[in-house]
Write a structure and sequence with these properties.
This protein is of the alpha/beta class. It has a domain of 196 residues: Rossmann fold. Helices cover 38% and strands 15% of the residues. The protein is built from 10 helices and 14 strands. The strands form 4 sheets. It has a 7-stranded parallel β-sheet, with helices on both faces. It has a 3-stranded mixed β-sheet with strand order 8-9-14. It has a two-stranded parallel sheet with strand order 7-11. Helix 1 links the parallel strand 1 and strand 2. The chain is globular.
Amino acid sequence: MIEATQLKRRALVTGGAGQDGWYLIQLLLDRGYQVVAQTRQALEHDLYQGRVRWAVGSLMDEAFLSGMLAEAQPDEIYNLAAVSRPTMSWDIPIETTILNGLVPLRICEYIRRDRPSCRLFQASSSEIFGDTSSDHQDELTRTNPGTPYGIAKAYAHQIVGAYRQQHGLHLSCGILFNHESPRRPLSFVSQKIAHAAAAAGLGLFETRELDDRGRPILSGGKLYLGDVNVRRDFGFAGDFVEAMHLVLQNSVPSDYVIGTGEAHSIAEFCEVAFKVSGLDWTRYVEVDSSLLRKIDSRFTQADPTKLKSELGWKPKIDFTGLVAMMVKERMRTIELQLQQPAMYEKRKDRVDR
């Protein structure tokens, strides 16, 4: 049974400046919450017109974390903060372990010791399943992580469940599959594709924005990617935060897979993205073997049956609509940049229409 949303509940959102944080904070404000949001660095612009109280600091600093929790006195905590990319976790494995694994434990300890009525949503990840052989992944699928990111997330997932069982606390995990939006950083492949498709559609031959190797995302009229046959369950971040909120309003804490139940390849993502720009993706996308990952989850597809049946959640934005939304927003952004002198110096006719 879903409990009615209570007005003026206090919510703490860690990682509030990220993609998910932005959508979640908007949802919470719309529903009458008092919101405290954590970010590692101060924001240049207040997107919420003073309606959000920001706590600026690193969650790996125990003194900062403890002080923030004590001051916020939250009724609900949404722990979204994390080293966000599996590939990055190989470069900073210790930070990944602390932020993705130990910080959730410290939050559980705070709730157990100081505020047992507080409810926790822990952002888990489909990366805990690793390169699974299962056709679909649900709450009972065996964990088999293959990166520091996935291993730390798996630890947090299990420790939250252990605290829930041991102490009877309202602690829940949402096993999040890939979720995208126009607010996705350019470091993610989905936004790289959307950006390249938008740029090519506007007649650009090369972009100012760079990829992980320090090269233009669209370089010489080409977007360079790794394995385009990898399949992912892509959903809309705005739909996912609705699920997060539903999980904490339920009277019974539990773990839920959050995903669409559909899988699409990177090649399909490219096809839809470039089609929005009126282009043939095969003329613009090249596979670069140096970008292939040694360890990767080649296939993820959520089975959100539990979430749908128990909480009534279902996604509102489909795959095609999601990709189109992202490309159109990148087009709008690039067009604004092009109005500024010398923003893009290298332009060339499109390779193909």
